[in-house]
Amino acid sequence: MTELTEHTPYDLVGVGIGPFNLSLAALSDGAPDLRTLFLDAKPKFSWHPGLLMEGTTLQVPFLADLVTMVDPTSPWSYLNYLRSHDRMFPFFFSERFHIPRREYDHYCRWVAERLPSCRFDAEVTAVAWDEAADAFAVTHRAADGTQTKVLTRQLVLGVGTLPTVPEPLRPLLTGEHAGRVLHSADYRTHRAALAGLDDVTVIGAGQSGAEVALDLLRHQDGQGEGGPFVRWLARTTAFAPMEYSKIGLEHFTPDYIRYFRALPEERREQLVREQWQLYKGVSEETLGEIHDELYERTIGGTEPRAALHPGVRIEAAAPDGDGYLLTCRHTQQDAPFEIRTSAVVAATGYAPARPAFLDTMTDLVDWDVKGRYQIDGEYRVALDPRVTGTLYVQNAEMHTHGVGAPDLTLGAWRAATILNAVAGKTVLPVPDRAAWTTFGAPHPSVPAPAIPGVAPAGAHR
User: Fold this and answer.
1) Closest among 294, 47, 36 to 152, alpha carbons compared
2) pLDDT at 127 over 70
3) pLDDT tens digits for range 372-423
4) For residue 460, what pLDDT is reported?
5) What are the φ/ψ torsions at residue 331 (nearest 5 degrees)?
6) β-strand partners of 345
């Protein structure tokens, strides 16, 4: 096995090239006196390939691309991507604000392939603090077995999140059940086979669950006879639309992050649970399309080959002949019931996971009582004082920064915040205030707003 060592330390190495670290790579491109490297195990950029179905759109406007929210003049903007592909006029005439997911994936790949700092086929296998070099030592391996060690003064983890499934389904994810019990992250791979089954159950009330249910419905013919019976289950009490009001979206601003960070930990965790519609709901458009499909299938009194069940918890799952038996409970009625189905697609979200390559750093990270990173306002992870380098994370901070952590809206802002911290100066200015809403009690020095028709206290008439 060939082993290589790069002795000159980088200013910043990023592990993982998803949209968030790609944003940091794009914004740092051309930054004076900043040497960066971004590593990813994949052979090329790909973003949720299992969910890139035709007709699905990004849930944020195109302005929430890799760079525009902090640097609209960047050559790595989505608009410049369109110009480079002679698509500016078609995009203009389409009057789109939310772009196709497949095009967002292609846009990110276009950026990643052109940034010299992005290196694919580079699986990071170990990260350690090298006291002699006063730097992090990052070892990565190529597909041909070649190992390379690089040094960096600062490190940013953008390794993404891993799919999660309900505990009763986990034993059925592999072996003979693979492809029949799966996470929605793998849906596109098994899409054709699932469409040919008699009955498919989709679990999860978020956007992914809605898109999978809609796609399966569209595999039925005009009379709803072909294709599978589609069953959509969810723990939430309703299939609810995502919060998308103009004021509601101010939860995805730096202002709300500052407010959220100042709250006690117990209150922060309660808020994340309560605010599920801010990041786990379904777009109104997708809900409308599902309703339209069901409406079409009931013309002339035909019963739809579909069922929607909110407020349901999966308690057990087991093989049953050619399919599966799900033991469920309606939580509000506390009523148990069973479902027999040919396949199960769990659109049950993702969660941060501690990467194995950090095992060599475990004793040097100051974990909180629940084993999570402790993260400051500039996305630095608390480390042992012996480590003089800096570790940053992206999309692993919902517990400290709130519901905006996984949202693309804040991606460029967070990347610019990290870039400024890495450089030790303002490379890209970021807004101090971005919301009309005052989160929390007003400061005593701020005068109360005037009420029309009511004189202020102490005023003479």
Assistant:
1) 36
2) yes
3) 999 999 999 999 999 999 999 999 999 999 999 999 999 999 999 999 999 9
4) 43
5) -70, -35
6) 182, 202
Adjacency order of strands within the sheet including 12-15: 118-119, 36-39, 12-15, 154-157, 390-393
Q: What gap in Å lies between CA 411 and CA 404, rounded to an integer?
A: 9
Strands 323-330 and 12-15: unpaired
Mean pLDDT of 261-271: 95
Quote the pLDDT of residue 457.
46
Task: State pLDDT tens for residues 19-39.
Answer: 999 999 999 998 988 999 999
**Residues 255, 433: contact at Cβ < 8 Å?**
yes
Chain segment 192-216, per-residue pLDDT in tens: 999 999 999 999 999 999 999 999 9
Give the model confidence (pLDDT) of 427-456 as tens digits.
999 988 899 999 999 877 766 555 555 455
CA 250, chain centre distance (Å): 18
Q: What does the H/E/C string look like for the chain?
A: CCEEEEEEEECEEEECCCHHHHHHHHHHCCCCCCCEEEECCCCCCCCCHHHCCCCCECCCCCCCCCCCCCCCCCCCCHHHHHHHCCCHHHHHHHCCCCCEHHHHHHHHHHHHHHCCCEECCCEEEEEEEECCCCEEEEEEECCCCCEEEEEECEEEECCCEEECCCHHHHHHCCHHHECCEEEHHHHHHHHHHHHCCCEEEEECCCHHHHHHHHHHHHCCCCCCCCCCEEEEECCCCCCCECCCCCCHHHHHCHHHHHHHHCCCHHHHHHHHHHCHHHHCCECHHHHHHHHHHHHHHCHHHCCCCEEEECCEEEEEEEEECCEEEEEEEECCCCEEEEEEECEEEECCCEEECCCHHHHHHHHHECCCCCCCCCECCCCEECECCCCCCEEEECCCCHHHHCCCCCCHHHHHHHHHHHHHHHHCCCCCCCCCCCCCCCCCCCCCCCCCCCCCCCCCCCCCC
CA distance 349 to 184: 9
Q: Would the pTM count as exceeding 0.85?
A: yes
The pLDDT value given to residue 446: 61
